Amino acid sequence: MVSGYLVSMPMFYSVIIPVYNRPDEVDELLQSLTSQSFKNFEVIIVEDGSSVPCETVTQKYAELLQISYYSKPNSGPGQTRNYGAERASGDYLIILDSDCILPEDYFKEVEQELTASPADAFGGPDRAHASFSDMQKAINYSMTSFFTTGGIRGGKKKMDKFYPRSFNMGVRTEVYRTLQGFSKMRFGEDIDFSIRIFQHNYVCRLFPGAWVYHKRRTDLKKFFKQVHNSGIARINLYKKYPDSLKLVHLLPGVFTLGVAVLLLAALLWPVALIPLAVYALLVGTDAAVQNRSLRIGLYAVAASYTQLTGYGTGFWRAWWQRCVRGKDEFSAFSKNFYK
C-alpha cells in the first residue's frame, strides 16, 4: 500500500554496512561518515564471517560516530543486512556497500529530497573517486555508461525504471520490516527487494544528488565474476518474477552472441572485426574524454567488453540450466565472490 505520511522533522537514519574481509575499505567509509554535514544517524557494522575482521577499525570511530559492531557466521550480504536492520532504530535504513565513500553532503541531499517529496524507498547513483586506480575508474565507467548495461539499470536518461541497488539504497524501516527485508538469494537480492517494493505500490525514487563513490572490483577477473553472477541473477529473478524480464535485459546476451559470431566469422573474413573495433573506439573515446585519460579509455574498452560478455555468458548459462534443463536456482562463484 502507498503511505500517506509527511516529513516535517529531521529524520534519524540507520546506516547498515555488511562487511566481508574489507577493513581498509570500511576505514575509508567510516572516515567519510565523520565528515557529514548532517549528523542525525547511527552506523551499524555487521561482520559476515570475515577472516580479516574490521572490529579494530570500527573502534577507532567509537568517539566520533554513534556506531555499533556485530560479528556473525557467513550468510551472504542480504541476510547480513537483515541482521543489522533488526538492531536498527532509525526512521530510515541506509544500505551501503563497505567499498563506498560518501561525499560530505550525502545525508543533506537525502533529507532535502524527503522533505520536498516523501518516499518509501530510494537510491542514488555512483561515481569514481579521484583516488581510485585507473582500472577502478574504467570499471566504474563500464557500470555507469549508456554504452553498456549502465543504460539499462534504470533512472534518469535510462531505458528502464529505477530500481535501487544495495550499494546505495534507502528504505523506510517500517517498509523494510513489512517486506521482511532481503531474501535468501545469494545474488540479485537487491533487485528482488526492489521488485517487492514496487509490487506493494510503495513510493520509490531516484535521488540524483545522493550519490556515492563506489570502488567495485579492483581487477578484470574479479569484475567478470561479479557481472557473470549478475547475469545468472537476472534469470533467477525471471523464474521468480516472470514479468521482471524486459527486452532491454536481453541486450548483453545478444551482444555476447554477436561478439562470438563476429569472432568466428573473422577467421574467414577479417572485416567481421570492424563492428567490434567501432564499438571499442566509441567506448574508448567516450571514457577517455570523460576521465581525461587515454589510459583509462583503453582500460574502459577491456572493462566494457568484460562487463557485457560476463553478464551475457552468465545470462545464457542460467537460461540453459534453469529454463531448458529445469535446474534449481544457483550461483557460479558463491565460495569466493566476496573475497
UniProtKB/TrEMBL annotation:
Native organism: Bacteroides graminisolvens DSM 19988 = JCM 15093
Limits of the Glycosyltransferase 2-like domain: 14-150
The protein's name in its UniProt record: Glycosyltransferase
Residues that span the membrane, as ranges: 272-289
GO molecular function: transferase activity
Domain of life: Bacteria
Pfam families for the chain: Glycos_transf_2
UniProtKB keywords: Membrane, Transferase, Transmembrane, Transmembrane helix
InterPro entries referenced in this protein's UniProt entry, alphabetically: Glyco_trans_2-like, Glycosyltransf_2, Nucleotide-diphossugar_trans
The keyword Transmembrane helix is annotated on this UniProt entry: yes
